[in-house]
């Protein structure tokens, strides 16, 4: 009787992709841990499966990020404005414990705050996350003790989110589990994870991407709706999904996803909208009313102009720019020689929003890290981008140190901070260019070089086109249309367990 490994199904089952064989940076880096991976690490026959390894690495890197915040935890948050910047360990979390009424037991959105803010300026699901953390925070001791506890409680909850993100990315591309290490080892991810509460939305978005890759359109929609209830950016993923489903004729899956997203968003938001509309709407009005802020090219223009644009003008121009970018992505989707992968377009639309927005907080890089790992799983390009983001992370804190240190002028002056912004913009643009190149020249796409079509695409994976424009509508006669999973995948990888 033949063994399970010798059955016809097993013989044609695609081999996992070995990054240490296909990526020179991954191969070089593997020498630090004993050399390239072998068959047992890839096939999951040992306890240390890719999912477990990557989850542990993500938790370890997150813990290093907590250690990096130690100078602030031990006093810089409380005893000096500039020291939390010179140590690059600033976090909104302890400051907002008292500043947004959690220390006083105020109910977000329902109870008014003292001062100009009036109400909590975060989406509802993030407000719930913050409130739950305040319930778990001991109310005894000094306010400093409570703020330290509040940060630690939030850090524990956010660590769970980080592990979820790493696991979801690892499992989204079934043949490329080790691409999850891009997320787990991303330095900017570890440095910015506890600045704010963005990881909640990122985790829900990563889980939604996993569900879509498994063909579960309703679960994808529900999770994306919840993610949008925690942060605005996840809703932008419905745009490229609409165009992809248009090109592939997969309307039922798209409508199901939109229905699930709308229902989930309403379930979370509707109670607060009905009973505390003014508090609920604060997030949206604040986003419109806030002026040009840190990290954007709009700030460079404003600080170098004798007559800077008004907030209304910037809102209008930023909206027009992002709409132009979205239209460009849609055009690219419909005219590309081969239908782009969902992760590629998801990365491009979120990056377009970040690049054109009037503010770029350093933790916004968290939105892009999982999408970048799925869109362009190439260590060289990913690390180039990460270096740029770490440079910006240091630049903004040194700039704030300069502006808050009085006559001492410790840190980075305005011109230096503008260069840091430029490095961030160029790094993100570079990765966007590489993704666009992969779309226009799919033979350069490392995911498709391994024999896959769109492993994060769910119902789109291997689907035929029903609507295309331009040259894509008239492919050359020698071109072949991908018509389903290739049973010859197993021949492309080594069969002896070598990397």
Automatic annotation (TrEMBL):
Zinc listed as a keyword: no
Ranges of biased composition (kind: Basic and acidic residues): 7-21
Protein's membrane topology: Multi-pass membrane protein
Signal peptide: none
Keywords carried by this UniProt record: Cell membrane, Membrane, Transferase, Transmembrane, Transmembrane helix
A GO CC term attached to the entry: plasma membrane
Sequence intervals crossing the membrane: 47-67, 149-169, 181-212, 218-246, 253-277, 314-336, 342-361, 382-402, 417-436
InterPro entries in the cross-refs: GT87, UCP010361
Pfam family, one: GT87
Region feature Disordered, mapped onto this chain: 1-21, 476-499
Principal cellular location given in the protein's record: membrane
Localisation per UniProt entry: Cell membrane
GO terms assigned for molecular function: hexosyltransferase activity
Family in the record: Belongs to the glycosyltransferase 87 family.
Annotated protein name in UniProt: Membrane protein
Organism: Streptomyces aurantiogriseus
Source organism phylogeny: Bacteria, Bacillati, Actinomycetota, Actinomycetes, Kitasatosporales
């Amino acid at each position: 009787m033949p063994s399970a490994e010798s059955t016809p199904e097993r013989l044609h089952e695609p081999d996992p992709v070995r990054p240490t064989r296909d990526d020179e940076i991954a191969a070089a880096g593997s020498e630090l841990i004993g050399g390239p991976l072998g068959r047992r690490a890839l096939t999951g026959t040992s306890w240390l499966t890719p999912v477990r390894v990557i989850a542990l690495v993500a938790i370890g890197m997150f813990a290093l990020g907590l250690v990096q915040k130690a100078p602030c935890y031990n006093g810089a948050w409380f005893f000096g404005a500039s020291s939390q910047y010179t140590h690059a360990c600033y976090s909104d979390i302890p400051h907002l414990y008292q500043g947004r009424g959690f220390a006083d037991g105020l109910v977000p959105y329902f109870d008014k705050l003292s001062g100009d803010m009036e109400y909590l300026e975060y989406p509802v699901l993030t407000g719930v996350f913050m409130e739950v953390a305040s319930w778990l925070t001991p109310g005894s001791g000094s306010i400093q003790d409570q703020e330290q506890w509040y940060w630690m409680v939030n850090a524990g909850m956010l660590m769970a989110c980080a592990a979820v993100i790493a696991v979801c990315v690892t499992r989204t591309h079934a043949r490329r589990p080790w691409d999850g290490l891009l997320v787990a080892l991303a330095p900017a991810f570890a440095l910015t994870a506890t600045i704010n509460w963005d990881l909640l939305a990122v985790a829900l978005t990563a889980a939604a991407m996993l569900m879509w890759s498994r063909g579960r359109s309703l679960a994808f929609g529900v999770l994306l709706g919840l993610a949008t209830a925690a942060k605005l950016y996840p809703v932008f993923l419905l745009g490229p999904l609409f165009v992809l489903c248009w090109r592939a004729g997969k309307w039922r899956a798209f409508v199901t996803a939109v229905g699930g997203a709308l229902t989930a968003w309403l379930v979370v938001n509707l109670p607060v909208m009905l009973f505390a509309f003014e508090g609920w709407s604060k997030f949206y009005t604040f986003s419109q009313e806030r002026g040009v802020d840190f990290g954007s090219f709009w700030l460079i223009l404003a600080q170098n102009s004798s007559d800077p644009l008004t907030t209304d003008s910037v809102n209008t121009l930023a909206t027009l720019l992002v709409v132009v970018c979205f239209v460009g992505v849609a055009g690219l989707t419909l005219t590309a020689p081969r239908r782009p992968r969902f992760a590629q377009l998801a990365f491009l639309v979120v990056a377009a929003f970040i690049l054109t927005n009037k503010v770029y907080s350093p933790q916004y890089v968290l939105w892009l890290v999982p999408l970048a790992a799925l869109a362009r799983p190439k260590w060289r390009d990913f690390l180039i981008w990460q270096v740029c983001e770490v440079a910006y992370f240091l630049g903004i804190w040194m700039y704030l140190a300069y502006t808050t240190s009085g006559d001492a002028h410790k840190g980075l002056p305005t011109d230096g901070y503008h260069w840091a912004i430029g490095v961030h913009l160029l790094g993100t643009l570079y990765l966007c260019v590489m993704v666009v190149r992969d779309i226009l020249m799919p033979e350069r796409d490392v995911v498709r070089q391994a024999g896959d079509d769109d492993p994060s695409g769910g119902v789109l994976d291997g689907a035929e086109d029903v609507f295309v424009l331009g040259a894509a509508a008239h492919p050359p006669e020698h071109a072949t249309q991908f018509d389903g999973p290739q049973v010859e995948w197993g021949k492309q990888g080594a069969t002896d367990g070598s990397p």
